[in-house]
Amino acid sequence: MKKAFAAVLVIVVVVGAYFWRQSGGEEVNDKPLALYGNIDIREAQLAFNGSEHIAEILVQEGDRVSKGQLLARLHTELLQARLAEAKAALEAQRQVVARLEAGSRPEEIHKAEAELQAAEARAKAARDSYRRVARLLEKKLASPQDEEQARSQADAAAAEVKAVQATLALLKAGARKEDIAAARAQLAAREAVLQQARQRLDDASLYAPADGIIRNRILEPGDMAFPQSPVLTLAFLDPVWVRAYLPEPMLGRVRLGASAWITTDSYPDKRYQGWVGYVSPTAEFTPKTVQTPELRTRLVYSVRIFACNPDGELRLGMPVSVDIELDQVDAGAQPRPCGAP
Fold this sequence. Notes:
The strands form two sheets. The chain has a six-stranded antiparallel β-barrel with strand order 1-8-11-10-9-12. It has a four-stranded antiparallel sheet with strand order 5-4-2-7, with no helix packed on it. It is an alpha+beta fold. Strand 9 (about 260-265) and strand 10 (about 270-285) form a beta hairpin. The protein is built from five helices and twelve strands. The chain has helices at about 1-20, 75-100, 105-140, 145-175, 175-200; strands spanning about 35-45, 50-55, 65, 70-75, 205, 210-215, 225, 230-245, 260-265, 270-285, 300-305, 320-325. Among the domains are: about 45-75 and about 210-230, CATH 2.40.50.100; about 85-200.
């Protein structure tokens, strides 16, 4: 009887060992995956896109700001003067273009026509005088010098007529198309200068690029601002994410978009719903500062669990715990923005 019991026991042990090996020697764990990490947020270093003394800063550290809210201003006296100068130069060039495109005024053409008539009359008188002197020279009643002087006066009068005719033709033809094109190009340059002056004046005001909280007030009124010198640090608080590390054996069981629950020591009775928004494509060794039940020599993958933070309770660096249900079938591949259903 004892021998039979021992034989049955051996068979049970062998069969159990066989199935244990077939299952990989590990039990399938259907419990939520527990991760530990810290809250991380994005920040922006806000600086003026210009160089001038700061006139005023309208926010303090810890203030909540909205997108588009005015945060600080520079002194703008010099910028406003440059804007006025650019406007005046633009208007002057517009008048130049308008004058060239309009052509000559009728009064200018009438004046040139009258000058042509006067020149033709002087030329006729000079020719008649030359003819008289030439006849007198034939009769020995005038000297050759008189005849030469009269001919010169007649030639000069004829040349004057041609000059006035050319002037009249130019007035009637108007400005050359090349001159008009050059004036228009100069007008476009003046418009660009005006746009630059307006942009520089706009850049003298610093606005919030998104909703957030002022973390640091780096400069103060009276300080010299440069594009390379941040004035304020703005923390974007919604959404935030948990910086954690996913053990390599769990890599195939946690998908992008998987739902997660976040708990903190500060609010132990409150859970924050989140989602897996990022899993690193490369492995690394577990950082020493990360608490995980896995061995520290195991490979892990950096993961971000995003969460909405409308009340600002999740703060930068706060240690948190994350529970993720494994093998979620309905996990989406895209992160869900805050406010979305």
